[in-house]
Amino acid sequence: MHGLKIWRASVIFLSTCACFLPASSRVLYRPPAGNRPPQISIRGELVQSDLDAFIGIAEIARLEANGIDHAPASGTVNVTLDSHGGNIWVAMSIGRIIRRYSFATRVEVGDSCVSACVYLLAAGHGRYVGGRVGVHRPYLPNDGVTSARAKKAQYAGIHAQTKQYLDEMGLPTSLYDRMMQTPSDRVSWLSVQDLSTYGLTRLIPPSPRHVMPR
């Protein structure tokens, strides 16, 4: 479909331009080819603009995985993650899109998924971890304006929504407990056994390492 091709080209162009924005992750798209499924790559710090980029790219990937515009690749979409976190509200919003579309999430060998990135990993319909995954307590940057009382209320809201989100993704409360037990200025790296215990891995085979443009 000619319209879809133009839309895809526009989305890919905009996501590539985002590579040059400061303090932004890069949401990149690799179309399907042969039996290789579409891939969305999320790298760097998660910020608000990444949600807008992901929404457009996710729709393209979903359509192409199911054979719109050409023969279907495999019916799935891989979302590869290499991020040390960022805005948790953005992470939860992207995570819910990943879950709604039944995308798979992957942390490839040599990559890391830390802090808010774990919310994305948790959303995957299938999950593969070949790299490192780390958690800690959610935090808010000090804006120098918000009072201690208001900040305490904000933290209470974040913790409640984090617990609700993990429950929504079908993960055990023990993962939430592990997060809360780790100070926000430290990282608790999860072992292979931890990943299994917390439900962050499901057995899907690793794919060949395809390097996305940096």
UniProtKB/TrEMBL annotation:
Domain of life, source organism: Bacteria
Full protein name: ATP-dependent Clp protease proteolytic subunit
Organism: Variovorax ureilyticus
